[in-house]
Design goal:
Order of helices and strands: HHHEHEHHEHEHHEHEHHHEHH
Oligomer: single chain
Largest sheet: 5 strands, parallel
Radius of gyration: 24 Å
Distance between the termini: 36 Å
Strand order of the largest sheet: 2-3-4-1-5
Structural class: alpha/beta
Strand content: 5-15%
Shape: globular
Number of helices: 15
Amino acid sequence: MLDTVKINSPPTEGQQTPATVDLRALYAETQIEALLTELDEELIGLAPVKRRIREIASFLLVARARERLGFSSAPPTLHMAFTGNPGTGKTTVALRMASILHRLGYSRRGHLVSVTRDDLVGQYIGHTAPKTKEVLKRAMGGVLFIDEAYYLYRPENEKDYGQEAIEILLQVMETQREDLTVILAGYTDRMNTFFHSNPGFRSRIAHHIDFPDYTDEELLAITEKLARDAEYRLSESAREALREYIVLRRQQPNFANARSLRNAFDRARLRQAMRLFQLDGEVDATKLMTLEDSDIRASRVFAEPRSDDDATRLN
């Protein structure tokens, strides 16, 4: 766990207020540049998201500088909404944001607790409140990440207990916002509907960040990075096959951006292993690390799916 960064408090009565604050020195003191650099290196693309994260970090840094010069202000509201399609890096950015808040002194522990509806909502009367409060207890001092948050609200079911979890969350988000940051995540259109139906959430969310889909070139680069990290490489023909795969897979149901390409890479490694096992004789390091076009083209994505059920299994 990261060490807590101590930020000077505003001068008390009798103390002399400093005339200036060196923002660059304060920035270096928090050591968040390493985290921002890691985010840039870990995630390909997502330029607007990375820009917003830097803007938030800058805002919080300036807030600390204002404290050092004696300005009085209420603690900033840090609750966020991450919207976008699956596989666009929302969970990864949430993890980095937890660490950034910790380095800047806005989070005691810097940890992230990731949950879905099932972790918060019970199946019978009296079950939801204890479940929700237990999750909140674990998340205190850090960040609570609620994926597919719109599933908390099911107006079509009169006996649903999601509303109870929502009311508890709203209360804690307001009364304990100095010790907990909540990030709600999910599809853009469904989250918009959710906020419209639950205005209490929208009023408590300070930062809305939209995660765009990756381009074909970015998905190719992501897969090549996965290969490098696992000490594999794509042959030139495999690289061209992967280009075709990306175009075709994007048109299939349940496409999940980088997540779909990660699954495709894993399947290609399995096919490569079977291909090498069937060879007669020894294999060298080059063969062991090289994925060929046949390892890519064996995917059912290159065949016409028989039904939507088949398409859900494509990888």
